[in-house]
Predict the 3D structure of the following.
Amino acid sequence: MKSISELLAATTERALPVLRGVTEDALTAPTPCPEYDVRALINHLLQVVVNFQALAAKQGTDFSTTPDRTAERDWREIFADETTRLVKAWAEPGAEEGTTGALGLPARTVGHMVLADLTVHVWDLARATGQEYTPDPDVVAELGPAVEEMAPQARRYGAFGEPVSVPADGPPFVRVLAATGRDPRWSPS
């Protein structure tokens, strides 16, 4: 079984080209997340990446405000730096042990939450901006059962939408997307 840090490193490696490929004129484009345009989704993702660094260290988080980091000229490098910190935070001894966060969830479950956010939201950004994105197969294998397990609670808290119907024997990542409430066929037009 791979560590959360190893899985996050694999996800980050595939996420960075997508983030770097987002052009300034695409920041107002819609995404598969109806409440976010590209700019808001990037800012949300940066907020998640920073806060889940704190969760790895069993520290408190602050999701109360979402600063507009895309207003900063080097936001793509900020994202690269913060995801590097995220991978390192989850590699620290004890990061996957015990519980963490306000809900007192098992640390590995919390690690799955950030892994899912990073993987699925990068797909959202790729779709919204016309880019290709294929997640790491090991990440998808880990996320399949994790997303299914966390889906009922995630729906209650509004983090996931209602599941989308896809073939039970469809590709694993399509099933992950559908479980989070995303239509794998979504396009901006």
